[in-house]
Amino acid sequence: MSRVLIAIVFLFIIISLLIRLMIMKSNLRSFSRELEKTRENGYNRFLRLTLGDRDMEGLAEQLNKNLEYQKNMKLEEERERQRMEQSVSDIAHDLRTPLTVIRGNLRMLSEEKLSEKGREYLEAAESRAEVLKNMVDEFFELSLIESGDLSIEKEKIDLTAFLAQFLVDNESMIRARGLEPDVRLPEKSIFINSDRGMLTRVMSNLLNNVCKYAKGSFMLSASETADGAEIVLENAIAEDAGIDTEHIFDRTYRADKARRDGSAGLGLYIVKLLVEKMGGTISAETEDGSLRFEIRL
């Protein structure tokens, strides 16, 4: 009789443990589903669980406290980012007016009779004022893009004609740098739906980069793709250029940290933002002594 009783007790314990295990597995599945929902909502919701287990509910409560803390940190980070963008925009805007006055006064001074030494000082001041203008313009443009105030106005563009005209408009700068363009445009028109002003800015920034680092010549090509078009800009670079294509589109990236070329180092970062705003992609790679940019629109 005692053996039967012991067997019954053991059976009861085993059944109780199995039930407990099934409840725990059910609770874990509920946890998993709630965590998935929370992740899909960008962690902007709390775990909603009624588990009937004090320890599991305590764990859910701690997770919710952690989610609330992370949410507050995320909101504070976003507020700080907006404050920083506004500060950059305000500073760039405030610098533009006095800088315009300074450059205007320097131009007026250039019309005056100056000594040879005075003319040297004037040319140096004009050069540094131009450098400062370029930097302020980059910061101001960046603040517009990142704040979302820069609207996109798409239109049907003949890319073949656009690139041909772009080269004509910038021919004097290209020749002044002693560069020979290798143009590979198709005979037929390639049409894309994009923002003409943004595309012009993208190509101008890339061409400025070419003029700074290219040796002898550069290649510009365009081709039609299954879903749009591809633009390639390639130029030879010095063996010791040290260009890191993995970070070339990062904010304030400079291939040569010692170079002072009148730029805040934002040109290629702005290119990437504008291309993405137009719904495209851009990549860079170095191979056989050449730097190659590929834009897909």
- The level-1 CATH class of the largest domain: Alpha Beta
Cα Rg: 31 Å
DSSP summary: helix tally: 7
Query: How many β-strands, per DSSP?
Result: 7
> Low-confidence runs (pLDDT<50, min 5 residues)?
none
Shape: elongated
- Taking the alpha carbons of the first and last residues, their distance comes to 85 Å
Number of domains: 3
Q: Approximately what portion of the residues adopt beta-strand conformation?
A: 15-25%
Strand order of the largest sheet: 2-4-5-7-6
CATH topology of the largest domain: Heat Shock Protein 90
CATH level 4 superfamily of the largest domain = Histidine kinase-like ATPase, C-terminal domain
**CATH architectural category of the largest domain:** 2-Layer Sandwich
The H/E string reads HHHEHHEEHEEHEE
The average pLDDT is: 81
Largest sheet: 5 strands, mixed
- Please estimate the helix content: 55-70%
Structural class: alpha+beta
